[in-house]
Task: structure prediction
Amino acid sequence: MPRLESGNSSRRGFLKTFAAASVAAVGGGAALSRAADPMEAQAGGGPQTNSEKKVVAIQIPAVSFSDEGVDKVLDTVQERAGVNTLLIAVFSYGRGIEGRQIPGHPLPDHGVQKYDTDTFHGGDYAEVHAEYYGDTIFKNFRAPDLGSFDVLGEVIPKAKQRGMKSICWFEDVYNPRLLDNFEKAAEVDVYGRKTGQACLNNPYVRNFLSSLVEDWTKSYDVDGVMWCSERQGPLNHAIDAHNGRTTLTCFCQYCTQKGEQQGINVQRARQGFMHLDQWVRAAWTQPRPSDGYFVSFWRLLLEYPEILAWEKFWTDSQQEVYGRIYGTVKSINRNVLAGFHIMHLNSFSPFYRAEQDYRKIRQHADVLKVVMYNNCAGPRMTRYVDTVHSTIWQDSPAESVLEMYYNILGYNGEAPLGKLSTTGFSSDYVYRETKRALADVQLARVPMPGLSADFVAPPSKREIPGVPQEILIYPGIDIDIPTAKGEKQTQPDDVRGAMKAAFSAGAPGVILSRKYSEMKLDNLSGAGAALKDLGIKT
Result:
């Protein structure tokens, strides 16, 4: 595959092409009730027509292209869902974005009718060009399960012929058993034990991520890269810990040194998290404290404010990696999009939501995929309430905890706890969350002192005279993400309603998730029905 030269077109033209729809579409508006149809909020009440081209993207694992053939997959997603952008899953060791259907859940009505439990391995499903990985410790990470199949080399040319864009979709999921030298990159917990997660302050990890995007951006005619890092800091891990497990990280040599350089008392932070771990375990197994659960939890934070300092340190470190990826891409070709995935916890936890400040993230991103999976949101929110009710909110009934969270997050009118796992969230949730995200990225840019060089975007992103500074928001719409028996299952009208809600709220695009290899064709067609309802052509 020939190497591509760095792009030299102006940033103005680049943003004009990709951002026009969001700039034109963003608007205000009060939240609707659950009973309201978001479409009724549109002027005129009829189908929307829009001359701006909307993005309809879909996440597809490499195995689907290998199993079904590239042309057949492209035919299917174009004809049924109007897809014009591919999020091609290139790198992961996890089954969230790679592989066939997860065993134990029904196979969809397309693809090979067999689970790949015995063959799934993970890794990089594109050709690995060794010259880009000289500064990394990971060497044998080419996925072997599909043989020599090069997902980018096979898919991108055929997508281009159809006018479809291709984004490299990769995930912060590794397998320590399969990845050489992983122990040199692992997070270290508060007790000094190495974990199965990669430390985001580890220079080997940062170099590896930069090398991946450099390889893909230089070796293939890609239109963008998007990184998925579904992780959270140690305080949030403690708050929603479940199944008797807490993972409080990272205290490796790199984090410890960096924290001390930033003026954090690392030893106090470590002591605080040890006490927090003990508090969580006591909440599960011991009688109620005399002052109650929340008071004793808050007292611990007052005693160890370093806990909050370390939580912010972890989150800032993750977002520095966003900046590293963004800077790498833009140094090669400014016309290639760089984007990031905001995980579903953003819809459940006000603590996690507070850390996902779009005003910060926008400084090093062209697009955010904000997860708004309304179908599986019901079971997921039910489980989340169960976990936080076992720790900080044991003083109140679980039903009251959910009601409080609805009030805080703006979800009034969604299903009560007893029905939530079977009904999911409404399409109005998608509408509200889209509005909120679009409003947040419009906020005036504020100075962010104390950020590292990796975090701050280059001048071309921060100051472009005459070019709007908004970034693109693509809501993630779920189709057949596996849920348990008796829990909410996706129906075509669910997809149709969520799509209509996202576009009616002003989204310039959507991303059909989580992976094509899970999706039933009729449910995928729900996306196409929504486009027809709205009069949107892709």
